[in-house]
Structure formats: structure tokens, C-alpha cells
Amino acid sequence: MRRLASAAVFSLPLIALVVLWAIVVRAFEVNPRLFPDVLSVGRAAIESINDGSLLGHVAASMWRVLVGTVLALILAIPMGIAMGVSPGVSSFFTPVFRFFSVLAGIAWIPIATLWFGYGFGAIVFVIFNAVFFVVTYNTLLGVASIPMPLRHAAASLGAGPWQMVTQVLLPGALPNIVTGVRTGLGFAWRGLIAAEMIATNVGLGYMLFVARDFYRTEVIVFGMIVIGVLWLLIDRLLLVPLERATMERWGTVRAA
Amino acid sequence: MNAALRLWNLRVWGPYMRATARWPALRSIVPFLPLLALWWAVAAAEVFPRAFFPGPAEVVGAFFTLTYKGILPEYLFDSVTRLAVGAAVGVALGIPLGLLVGLNRGAHTALWPILLFFQAIGDIAWLPILLIWFGFGLTTMTFVIVYTVLFPIVLNTVLGVRSIPIDLHRAARSLGASPARVVWEVVLPGSLPNIVTGLRNGLGYGWRALIAAEIIVGTSGIGFLMFDARRAGSVVEIMLGMIVLGILWYIVDAWVLAPIERATGQRWGMVQRQ
């Protein structure tokens, strides 16, 4: 019951905003080519759901994000741990990964489209990039932040290299890794939208950009809402709980 | 193996550590040398066609050509100005808004969900409709950057304001401070570490948004340079653009923003830990 009430309090301002939008557009007779009214956005929504085009765009976008992210994680976490094991190596490579995590994402779009051509490959590459460097950098920092006494203790209790990785290094770095995944996905999501505007013929970014050509603002606004809601769902239902859970479970290791 | 390792430690690692202790700037330059060497070797071996994967020498050459022609400095200046203007407007709007939402319960209830939602839409998704409203031009780009910088600052300011213990407000009030003075001397310094973190995140996102805006809107700037080069198929200039972007942001982030963040954290961060 209290959750329901707080959900109501949370959604009330958003509903008020929609009402305000409806009134303002109606009262000032805003040109629909500049800003649509609520009803036409709703019509655009129903239309694109019915003809299945929305599902196609969302599925294409999500599939790209999934492929890019999974590939990046498979490579980034082992690499970050391997480099983080030795303090010398990790402090040596920190600036390089910092440099590349700065570039991560959108800055790679021009070269990605040249290397892979317009389409799936280039977009997955951009997402891979955004996630890979940020996660590697964070894993590196996470492993480096594990207190040396803990690793010595594990080693003197007879932990082999493999046990060291699975029992000490990976759990110890996990909070950092998850934070890295969240940041990286944030960059990847923006990169996805930008890349889809430039380099493809299906996907949410493309949906927006094509609508612009025809001044169909109702499709643009609907697309923006879809993008916002999708990211809120990914962030609040997947990433934030994941981050909180790892913090609670393994976060104490860093405080030691 | 062991002897080699000892020799490595003695002859290479030891002197390197001593040198970086004396000149800390070396620590952020030397790690790039092996990477440069690798890049040079891969390019020279022509693993990939030369046109798709040029070597460092060509990129340096392009740097000098474009600097000599005056294109690179001009575009760089354009990009940095846009970012600076956007950041200034974002800070000027973001901090007061953050203070309002953080201090006033009603404002928090009313605005917090809206802020979260608009943050989630993300800067780049605004580009198509902004292009309809303002056309291909400076207004569009400034809007995108302000939008991007604004939200991290507002959200972090709110977090900072709310992390200040209520006791501190009460103490200041009972010592006779007016509400305005409480804001100025308690709330603002107390949330400063969070505000700076927000600014750093916001500029990080704003930087990327700027590149995307320049690619899509395309009149000038480093992003435009890169995309123009892409149209001409010149990988050299794309790589040059990426390196310039990386170096510039690295300098801004590592030598300006991170030290400020650390300094405010040390100076005012204590307030949070209670």
C-alpha cells in the first residue's frame, strides 16, 4: 500500500506535466510541425505499435546493445583483473585506459563507420568500445584498491592463483566493475542513439531522425519518450539494484 | 628468468619510478610510448590496408598540415568555446535549481520525477526536434550541451544538499544565521564536493554530446572535422581528431577537474561524514 502511494506521488508530477502540455498546445495553437499535442503523440504510438515498426526499432536497438555489451564484458573483466594483479603494471597502464575511456563511445563513430561500413558492425563496435574501456579501467582500479594484506593473507593460507582470482580479486573488484558497467552503458546508450542517427536504417535513433525529415514531431516526441522510458527501466530495474546488491554483499572489502 | 627480472627491476623499473617521482607528468606520458610503438609496428607491417590504418607519422603530418592551414586551431577553439559556454550556463542554472529542489520539500516532490525522466531521455535524442526548432546552428548545439551538463549538476547538488545533517542547519540557525546565510555558509560549502562531482560527470557527458552534435549538425568543430574526414575517407584526419579530443579532455579532466574535485573533497568533504 505504501509502495503504491509513493508510486502515485512519483507519477503525479509527470501526469501534471502531460496535462500542462495538453493545455498549452491547445491554448496557444502551436503549429504541429513545431510541437505535437498529446493526442497525436498517442495516435503515433498506437500506429507504430500496431504496424509493428516500434517493436522492430526497439528490438534492433536492444540487440545491438546486448551484443556489444556482452562482448565487451567477456574481454574487459579478465583483462582488467590480469592487469590489476601487479600494482606496478596497473599504475603504469592507468593513464592509457583513462585516455581511451575518455574517448569511449561517440568519438569512434566516424572511424567505425569507415572500418565496418554503415550498419550493425559499426554500431556494435561503438557500444563495445564505450563499455570495454570504461569497464576495464574500473576493474583495474577495483583490483588495485584491494588491500595488499588481504591478498597476502589469502596467499599465506594456501590459495593458488586461480583461487586468488575467484575468491579475492574478482569479489573485491566487483563493486567497481558494476559501477563501471553502469557508467559504460550510460555512454553506450547515448552512443547507440547517435550512431543510429548516422549509420543505419533501423533502430530508435533512426526512427527519430527519419521523422525529422518529414517534420513528424509527434513521432519524434514519442521516440524520445520511448528512449527515456527504456533507459529508466534498464537503469532502475537492472543496474541500480545490481549495484546496490554488490555494494552490500562485497562493498565492505574496500572499506577494510 | 629471475636474473632477467632482477635486471629489469634494477635497470628499467627502478629508474622509471625515480624519474616519475621527480617529474609526475612523465607518469601520464611514458605509458603511451609502447602503444605508439605498437601502432607504428602494426601500420608499418601493413596488417591492414594503409588507407584504413595509417601510421603515427601520417597523423603527425596531418596535424602540422591542418595547423598550418589554420583549420585545426579554429575548430578546436570553436569546440572548446561551445563547451565552455554550455558548461557556464549549465552551472548557472543547475546550482540554484539543485539548491531549490534539495532544500524545499514541495519542490522536491514536484520536480524530482520530472528531472529523472528528462535526464533519462538523454541529450542526443533531443537533436532531431532541436533541428526542427532552431535549424542547423549554434543554438542547437548550445542547447544540447546545456541540457547535458545541467542534469548531473542538479541531481548531484540535490544529493549534496540532502546529505548535510539537519543538525548543522539548526546549529547555524540557533547561532543567529539568517536563512540566506545558512544557504551561503552551510548548504553551499557542504554540497560543494557533490556539485564538483556533478560538474565533472556533466562535462564528461557534455563533451560526448558536443561531438555527436557537431557530427550531426556539422558546421565546424572537432566532431565536424572527423565526420568531414569520414566523408572524404581520410582515416588520418579522423585519427587526428580522436587524438586531439582525447588529449584535450585528458588534460581538462586529469589536470583541472580531478584536482578541483579532490581539493573540495578534502576541504569541505568532511561535512558529509557524520
Question: What would you note in describing this structure?
Answer:
The complex is a heterodimer of chains A (about 260) and B (about 270). Chain A has one domain: MetI-like (MetI-like fold, Orthogonal Bundle). Helix content of chain A is about 85%, strand content about 0%. Chain A has helices spanning about 1-30, 40-50, 55-85, 85-105, 110-115, 120-145, 150-155, 160-200, 205-215, 215-250, 250-255. In chain A, helix 3 runs parallel beside helix 6 (about 120-145), helix 3 (about 55-85) packs antiparallel against helix 8 (about 160-200) and helix 5 (about 110-115) packs across helix 6. The longest helix of chain A is centred in the last third of the chain and has 39 residues, at about 160-200. The model of chain A has no long low-confidence stretch (mean pLDDT about 85). Chain B is mostly helical and about 270 residues long. Chain B folds into 2 domains: about 1-45, no CATH class; about 70-270, MetI-like (MetI-like fold), CATH 1.10.3720. Helices cover about 80% and strands about 0% of the residues of chain B. Chain B is built from 11 helices and no strands. In chain B, helix 6 (about 125-135) packs across helix 7. Chain B is flat and about 70 Å long.
Keywords, separated by commas or semicolons:
heterodimer, A: 256 residues, MetI-like fold, 11 helices, 85% helix, B: MetI-like fold, disordered C terminus
Radius of gyration of chain B: 24 Å
Overall number of strands of chain B: 0
Distance between the termini of chain B: 52 Å
Count of folded domains of chain B = 2
Give the strand content of chain B: under 5%
Domain count of chain A: the total is 1
Parts with pLDDT < 50 across at least 5 consecutive residues of chain B: 270-274
Q: Main sheet of chain A?
A: none
Structural class of chain A: mainly alpha
Any idea what the CATH superfamily of chain A is called?
Answer: MetI-like
Highest-level CATH class of the largest domain in chain B? Mainly Alpha
* Stretches with pLDDT under 50, minimum 5 residues of chain A: none
The number of E-state strands of chain A comes to: 0
* Nearest-integer average pLDDT of chain B: 83
| Structural class assignment of chain B | mainly alpha
CATH topology of the largest domain in chain B: MetI-like fold
Report mean pLDDT of chain A, rounded to a whole number. Answer: 84
